[in-house]
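Sample entry (121 residues):
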Amino acid sequence: DVQLVESGGGEPQPGGSLKLSCAVSGFPFRRATISWIRQRPGKELEWVSTIRGNTDTTRYADSVEGRFTTFRDSTKDTLYLQLNSLKTEDTAIYYCANVVSFYMDYGPVDSWGQGTQVTVS
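Predicted structure, serialized as tokens:
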């Protein structure tokens, strides 16, 4: 079975940091293109970042560029999202998703995780 399981959410203070994890199973992790997508309270889904399979090239939304970093550890089949300089507006449920396209912010998704809550206050 394909599974993506997020963890690492919490309640950091503004200006703080947090590292989210996305443990993957059921498909070739090293070749997978995976996005982080968040949903802020009362808002629609918002694309955050994407890491490309094989090359590990990354893209970020303007709202998180320079503050968030996504990277993978292929020995653990785990993707990470390092969140730095957090703002209250980063409060959201963060999801990882196995996506079809590296270039599309809101392209087709093969599978989703269940999400992890980040509350900055």
